TrEMBL record:
<keyword id="KW-0233">DNA recombination</keyword>
<feature type="binding site">
    <location>
        <position position="143"/>
    </location>
    <ligand>
        <name>Mg(2+) 1</name>
    </ligand>
</feature>
<feature type="binding site">
    <location>
        <position position="9"/>
    </location>
    <ligand>
        <name>Mg(2+) 1</name>
    </ligand>
</feature>
<comment type="function">
    <text>The RuvA-RuvB-RuvC complex processes Holliday junction (HJ) DNA during genetic recombination and DNA repair. Endonuclease that resolves HJ intermediates. Cleaves cruciform DNA by making single-stranded nicks across the HJ at symmetrical positions within the homologous arms, yielding a 5'-phosphate and a 3'-hydroxyl group; requires a central core of homology in the junction. The consensus cleavage sequence is 5'-(A/T)TT(C/G)-3'. Cleavage occurs on the 3'-side of the TT dinucleotide at the point of strand exchange.</text>
</comment>
<dbReference type="GO" id="GO:0006310">
    <property type="term" value="P:DNA recombination"/>
</dbReference>
<dbReference type="InterPro" id="IPR020563">
    <property type="entry name" value="X-over_junc_endoDNase_Mg_BS"/>
</dbReference>
<dbReference type="GO" id="GO:0006281">
    <property type="term" value="P:DNA repair"/>
</dbReference>
<feature type="binding site">
    <location>
        <position position="70"/>
    </location>
    <ligand>
        <name>Mg(2+) 2</name>
    </ligand>
</feature>
<keyword id="KW-0238">DNA-binding</keyword>
<keyword id="KW-0227">DNA damage</keyword>
<feature type="active site">
    <location>
        <position position="70"/>
    </location>
</feature>
<keyword id="KW-0460">Magnesium</keyword>
<keyword id="KW-0234">DNA repair</keyword>
<comment type="similarity">
    <text>Belongs to the RuvC family.</text>
</comment>
<dbReference type="GO" id="GO:0003677">
    <property type="term" value="F:DNA binding"/>
</dbReference>
<dbReference type="InterPro" id="IPR012337">
    <property type="entry name" value="RNaseH-like_sf"/>
</dbReference>
<dbReference type="GO" id="GO:0000287">
    <property type="term" value="F:magnesium ion binding"/>
</dbReference>
Amino acid sequence: MRVRVLGVDPGLTRCGLGVVDGGSGRTVHCVDVGVLRTPADEDLPHRLLAIADGLEQWLDRHRPDTVAIERVFSQHNVRTVMGTAQVSGVVAVAAARRGLPVVFHTPSEVKAAVTGSGSADKKQVTTMVTKLLKLAAAPRPADAADALALAVCHLWRGPMLRRMAEAEARAAQLARAHRARLAAAAQQARTGGAP
């Protein structure tokens, strides 16, 4: 069964987009990769609108099953992290409007998934993405490679995360049933065994 993931490396100046199909096991195939760009001297609302419009075109063209977004993490530059967070929100809303699941992955999760090391540098990520997807050339700029890495990360981590969520839901269900039995036993003890 094929699963298609749109990976998004959010950014106001450059927003990386990568679409990857996954099959059985760890088979992955690059469908498309690119970058949405907005000029730094343009007003924020217009930049966000341009990204939203470009993203809508990608969603229409590629029809992904899931959208994987890089989770915003603390940076020294507050303006950069704010812009990244705003773009992440735009992407999440666009996906939610279409009923698509949205998953956030940290940079270290992505690096670990594609290189085996959560502290890999951008060059290592780009090299591994190029090899894994059997690309003729490395995706440029790094935002494009990062978007592909996000999609691959989700394809490989998604089944494990789904199994963990199912196990947690089952454990919660068992805990509720156990509490109900305890409450019933306590009630019976208080009433002396009377129904």
